[in-house]
Design brief:
- The protein has 1 helix and 28 strands.
- By secondary structure, the protein is mostly beta strands.
- The protein has a 4-stranded antiparallel beta sheet, with no helix packed on it.
- The longest helix has 14 residues, at 2-15.
- It is globular.
């Protein structure tokens, strides 16, 4: 009787709601988009056009942006003539694609239908990370710095409607990285990797107003923002997410992650942080603004550290470079 009773309890436990949820990984691989074997080297940012069912991938050494059909998982176009692609913005109201080209030092503007080049906005070499303000249609771009043999970096503002540069701001330090924009205020937070700081820019006054030191992690390259709770998340390749209070600029804590992070995103709906690192995605859940619980690591592949979350599709996309005999691919994860 005891053995039967024990078996009965075990069955009840397995059948109970949530019995598997605790061991369920936060991400589940559901699809892969394969790339040609000649696509080599690292990727930079991945961007998705949700309405158009397209994904834009930026293999930096391929001198092109690959355009995938999200439904079929196949390449539908290769946007060539981009010396070193870094970031992509798609503006649906104009049906235009904006690509930063680090080699040419330009923001290239393409037609969203036929992919023809419309115009190029000249900046400095190493035109790289971007931040977009949908209210003003202004694009903020870091460029210049070390590759331009400068001890400072340029933080440039591009009017995406006119296709013109409207302002430049110099920031001391030869490498800037990811940025995050407030929607309720005028500030932009920028990773000043060279100084291991967060640069705070007032986008109305167009000037640097503060610099916050990052001491709980090193090589700050990725950034995410929980604006509602005044929490800025700074991803550091040393293996940390540093949490800062944007009301004070103070560091609050450092969350351990896999080394080599390159992309970081915060999902306010699920209150989760996703850190794309070298070979794994580290996922944290925010229980409150001062407490974070690890949901585990999800394996990806060597140097697969660029990714994006598309909440509307419940999908997380990771770009994995070619390694060994395995071709480059886009890994598509379902959020669990």
């Amino acid at each position: 009787m005891k053995s039967r009773y024990g078996l009965f309890l075990s069955i009840l436990a397995l059948a109970a709601p949530g019995a598997h949820s605790q061991s369920q990984p936060p991400l589940k691989l559901v699809q892969t988009f394969k790339m040609p074997t000649d696509v080599k080297g690292h990727f930079d940012h991945v961007t998705v056009d949700v309405a158009g069912h397209r994904l834009f991938a930026t293999p930096e050494d391929y001198e092109a942006v690959e355009v995938f059909d999200l439904d079929r998982g196949q390449i539908i176009h290769i946007m060539k003539g981009i010396g070193r692609p870094h970031a992509v913005l798609y503006r649906p109201d104009l049906d235009r694609i904006y690509v930063t080209d680090g080699e040419a030092g330009e923001v290239k503007i393409f037609d969203g239908k036929n992919y023809d080049l419309i115009k190029s906005v000249k900046l400095e070499v190493d035109t790289d990370s971007i931040g977009y303000d949908p209210a003003t249609k202004l694009l903020y771009v870091d460029n210049g710095g070390g590759d331009a043999h400068q001890s400072y970096s340029m933080f440039s503002i591009v009017d995406t409607t006119a296709g013109e540069k409207v302002a430049d701001l110099k920031i001391d330090g030869d490498t800037l990285e990811a940025m995050a924009l407030e929607t309720s205020g005028p500030r932009i937070y920028v990773n000043n990797r060279a100084k291991n700081q967060v640069a705070v820019v007032d986008r109305q006054a167009r000037k640097l107003v503060e610099s916050w030191p990052v001491t709980l992690g090193k090589v700050n390259v990725a950034m995410a923002f929980d604006e509602a709770n005044h929490r800025l998340f700074v991803g550091c390749r040393s293996g940390h997410i540093v949490v800062l209070d944007t009301a004070s600029g103070k560091e609050l804590q450092a969350l351990p992650i896999t080394k080599g992070v390159d992309d970081l995103v915060y999902d306010p709906g699920r209150k989760r942080l996703y850190a794309a690192c070298d070979g794994a995605v580290d996922v944290y859940e925010q229980t409150d603004p001062d407490h974070y619980k690890s949901l585990g690591k999800v394996a990806t592949g060597p140097a697969a550290k660029t990714a994006t979350l598309v909440s509307q599709l419940n999908r997380y996309f990771v770009a994995m470079p070619q390694h060994g005999s395995t071709p480059a691919e886009i890994q598509v994860f379902e959020v669990q």
